[in-house]
Write the structure tokens for this entry.
Amino acid sequence: MKPLFSVIIPTYNSASKITRAVKSVLAQTFKEYEIWVIDDGSTDETRSVLEPFGTQVHYHYQANQGVAGARNQGAQYASGAYLAFLDADDWWYPEKLERVAQAISAAPEVGLFYSQVDFFNEAGTKLWTYRSEDRGSRNYHTLLQRDFVLTSSAVAKTDCLTQMGRFDGSVSPCEDWDMWLRIAWRFPIRLIPEPLVAYEYQVTGSLTSGTQRWVQAHDRLLDKVMTADPDLTPPLRRRMRAAIAYRKGKIYLAAREDASALHAFQEALRLRPLFWESWLYWSVLKSRLLRKLLPQRIKYALRLPEAQP
């Protein structure tokens, strides 16, 4: 009998974290699932730390192809009606799949489910809860402007993902956002409004590394979406361009490239003058005194580099 869920966990040199992710799946209160760990060319002890799980985990090793290639391989092997994605350094709460199964029963037409997510630092301290959005029939238009679907919370109907094609490694590391956009373009997507996932926030592994790679990926994604959807209205195109400029500003800011960040926020404001988030960051960057006087809790909320955990 085929399971309802195929859990796909791509991993690369995450031997110290992968067992936590797998154990969080095995601890699920809902048991109709299979687990596929796609080892994307690890050179550490990933294989050996997974051996004690035996047949509870399907393990596949492949030459390094990047996370898009690993997820595509997992989707190819999967037999479940839904694909549940989990990154190797994150973990699920025990009721995650049960809540999704309930949501599926209530709305089988939905192509993608996602939830809110708790952020933790590497010491295991909770930092904040990411409050994702659900705009109903406007989810696609909202998703054009910001990626509010965190991958470890995403559960996609296998048939929908198959129709939309494979994860596109050419827009990596934005391949997830690209996939959620393609699904939302054709199918309803829906929020499960509670935290079901723990995301490990790593400063050194986030936007501070490979800055130009991140920026160029956003440009490629913008070009791809504009070409793929000729029905996008001029206002929506401007809003997406503004959103990409804002996102690039955040990337530069995290990398402590303040001049480039300021330029990106200015571009966002040129395209969308009432973009209040861009106004906020532009003001902080424009005034060193303002940035210095901001309370630490505000700096932390804005994810300013000096406020990072």
